[in-house]
Structure formats: C-alpha cells, structure tokens
Amino acid sequence: MNPVATPIFFYGLSIAAIVFATAVITRKNAVHAALSLIGTLISLAGLYLMLYAPFVAAVQIVLYAGGIMVLFLFVIMLVNLDQNIREIQFNKQWLVGLIAALALGGLALFVIQQGKSIFPLDQVAALPEGMNTQMVGVMLYGPYMLPFEIASLLLLVAIVGAVVMAKKRI
Amino acid sequence: MAEITTLHYLVVAAALLIIGTIGVLTRRNVVIILMSIELILNAVNLNLVAFSRLYGLHGQIFSIFVITDAAAEAAVGLGIIIAFFRNKETINVDEADLLKW
Fold it and tell me: What is the DSSP letter of A120?
C-alpha cells in the first residue's frame, strides 16, 4: 500500500514537534513545560510511524509519554516551585549559551550538507518488508542478546540509585 | 509536492537537538534542564530511526536502548533533584554551590 499525503503529515508533525520543544524551554511554569514535552514526544511518535517503525512509536508513547513524563510530573509536584516561577528563569551566561548552541546548529547543518555525498540521503527508501515488531523481537533476542541483558542490569542499578538518592535515611 | 527523504528528518532532528542544547545551557530550573536532555535524546532517536529506514533495523534497536537509558537517567536525575531540594530549598542550578568556597 502506498503512503498517502506524506508531506502534509511530515510537515505538520515536525512543526508541532519543534513548536512544542520551543515551548518546553521557554515556559515559566514547569508543568506547562512537561505538558509541551509530551506534545513533542507524541509528534515524534507520529514521525516514527511515518518511518515504518511502529514498535518504536508504541514504545515512545507507552514508555516516554506514559512513564517518564509521569515521573517528571511527580517530581514537579514534590518540589515546591511556587517561588521559582517569580524568579529569573535564565542564567547569566544565556547569551554565550545561545551563541554556542547556534554554532553547534550551523555545524550540524554543514555536516548534513557534506554527508549528502556519502549517504543516499535524498533518495526515497524502499518500503520495508516483513513484520516490524516481529523482526525487532528476533533481533533483540538474537544478535543483541548481551546488550539487552546489560540494559536490564542498567535499569536495576538506576532503581537502586534513585532509591538511595531520594531516601532521607537508608 | 516533493517526496520526504531522510534529509528532512535529519534537519528536524538537528533543530530539536539545538533547542535542547539551548535549554540545557540557558535555563536555571533543574527540572527543565532534565527535560531539555530528554529533547536531545529524542533528537538522537529520530536520527537513528531515520537511518534505520535506509540501513536495516539496527537503528531501531539502538533507539530502544536509548529510551532505556533515558528512563534510567530520568530516575536517577530526579532522585538527585529531590535530594538537592531537601538540602538547599531551591532547584536553581546556579545556587548549587556546595562544592565551591
């Protein structure tokens, strides 16, 4: 089945992602920033669907927008942000940071421009074959077995570390 | 209308990366700095998935690992924020000066 109206969806989703991302770093209220970040994550999940990666899109929504963002909202609720809203939101080095980040952006665009001759970036890739989720599962439990197990170990360490950090007295 | 190629996705990912970097470098609120780090990780994920469209599924596997890392990083980072808030009653990064004298 051929995709329908791809450019409209692509531009809509990417503009939504970038606008929500800008809102994340400019909003005073951290709750508004977190909700904007959820908007960015859901737009990116749409872009993953357009790239024929439905499993990553589902993981993005379930894990990121559902799990990690709830963690963020819990912490925003736990720490008292009432007087923080009335303070200055940007630090003293904001101009230097802005210039450095824009220089990094220029570098990224330059690298993309150069990479056009190395990678087939401006061709439309062929439609993928087979079931995406099934193939991801076969690869995760096949050649990527050891990294997968190490990732579970990393999560265990993170749980223990988070408990040790957040607990008053162990 | 023109076809959407990998190049378009790379430009969107670069824009997200830059927005995240600006957030990390300019904001004072630690929670928003952690959210900007999530933005950067998402830009990387978009790059990986866009390239996996060209070169097979390895990019998607790596993006799943990146999401795992993001979960671990968020858990530990938010634990650190809670510990910091308990000690200093603030969450501004430029007031985190316990190691300075």
Answer: -
Average pLDDT, chain A: 87
Amino acid symbol at B21:
T
Residue B81 · residue B31 · CB < 8 Å = yes
Amino acid letter, A6: T
pLDDT in tens, B37-83: 999 999 999 999 999 888 888 999 999 999 999 999 999 999 988 88
Range A113-125 burial, b when 16+ CB lie within 10 A, else e: eeeeeeeebeeeb
B38 burial (CB, 10 Å; 0-12 / 13-18 / 19+) is: buried
Threshold 0.95, pTM exceeds: no
Whether residues B92 and A18 touch (CB distance < 8 A) is answered with: no
Cα separation, B50 vs A50, in Å, equals 10
Residues of B in contact with A3 (CB under 8 A): none
B93 contacts in A (CB within 8 Å)?
Answer: 91
Q: Where residue A128 falls among pLDDT bands split at 50, 70, 90?
A: confident
Say how far apart CA A95 and CA A101 lie, in whole Å. Answer: 10
Q: Tell me, what's the ipTM?
A: 0.91
Residue in B92, B97, B73, B75 with CA at minimum distance from that of residue B27: B92
Query: Closest to A55 (Cβ–Cβ): which among B34, B39, B60?
Result: B60
Which pLDDT belongs to residue A3? 64
